[in-house]
Amino acid sequence: MIIISLLIALAPGLFLFWYFNHRDKYEPEPKRKIVKIFFLGALMVIPAAIIEMLLMTVVNRSTAGLLNIFVLSFLVIAPIEELLKYLAVRKWIYKSLEFDEIMDGIVYTVSASLGFATVENVMYVLRLGIETGIVRAFLAVPGHALFGALMGYYIGKAKFNKEKETQLILRGIIYAILCHGIYDFLVLAPSALSSLVILLLVVLLLWIRKQLKKAEVDSRQRMTHAEHVQLAKEVMNTSDKDDH
Hey, is 21 helix, strand or coil? Predict the structure, then answer.
């Protein structure tokens, strides 16, 4: 039973990890770096759990009802988790030469997010059972991936726009926190609101698909440009040899 529970907990994160990396088809990232960011994202569960437990104790003592849910969702859980995912990307891969297109921002941030989500999912499934794992496979884990893709798109744009770098990064972080906060609020709120979680994820999915297509176009154009440059160099080298 434990093995089945683990498989159910791991499957959604690993599938989405494969899917988003598969979309990076023009200039795929080194597997070792992607896996490294995945595991760094997974490690972020530890500081997140510690900080959240400390803050939840304070919040639960001072608030109740919907206010309590709002504070926990928007001011505790969402910002802590999204900032830690961002930290994994910013500190260990953002300045790397391998990070050389907008798609990389999506791929690396989603990898960190899914590392985080996978460990979190294993903890929930082992504690609450297979049914929880099945529900989270369609809601929480895809949610983490979508929040990461949303933030990653702007991180990718920021890398190549020094004038607006800080502005774009902040926009990505804020959007991710807001969407994550809305998700948590709807999940924790009374059942009448919980049903809106699916609508939120569908809207996010449609938005992310559009950004993925933009990133793919950028990646394809970069590859075409690189091929033209390489061809021009080869022509020039051939011409030089002929002159000699």
Answer: helix
What DSSP element (H or E) covers 184? Answer: helix 165-188
Place of tokens 């460990």: 119
Judged on CB neighbours under 10 Å (0-12, 13-18, 19+), 210 is exposed
138: which 2 tokens? 């369609």
Contact 215, 101 (CB under 8 A): yes
CA 115 to chain centre: 9
Predicted confidence (pLDDT) at residue 236 exceeds the cutoff of 90: no
Report the distance separating Cα 147 and Cα 173, nearest Å. 9
- CA-CA distance, 4 to 215, in Å (whole number)? 37
Give phi and psi for 74, each to the nearest 5: -95, -25
What span, in angstroms and rounded, lies between the C-alpha atoms of 208 and 223? 22
Cα angle, residue 56 at apex, residues 54 and 58 outer, rounded to 5° = 80
Report how far residue 212's alpha carbon sits from residue 210's, in angstroms, rounded to the nearest whole number: 5
Per DSSP, 29 falls in state: P
Instruction: Name which of 17-31, 81-95, 199-213 the model is least confident about.
Output: 17-31
Render the burial of 123-159: b for 16+ CB within 10 Å, e for the rest. ebbeeeeeebbeebbebbbbbbbbbbbbbbbbbbbbb
Q: Is the Cβ–Cβ distance between 137 and 11 less than 8 Å? A: yes
Over residues 129-147, mean pLDDT: 94
pLDDT bucket at 237, cuts 50 / 70 / 90 = low
Q: Round to whole Å and give the CA distance between 221 and 226.
A: 9
Question: What percent of the chain is predicted at pLDDT more than 70?
Answer: 91
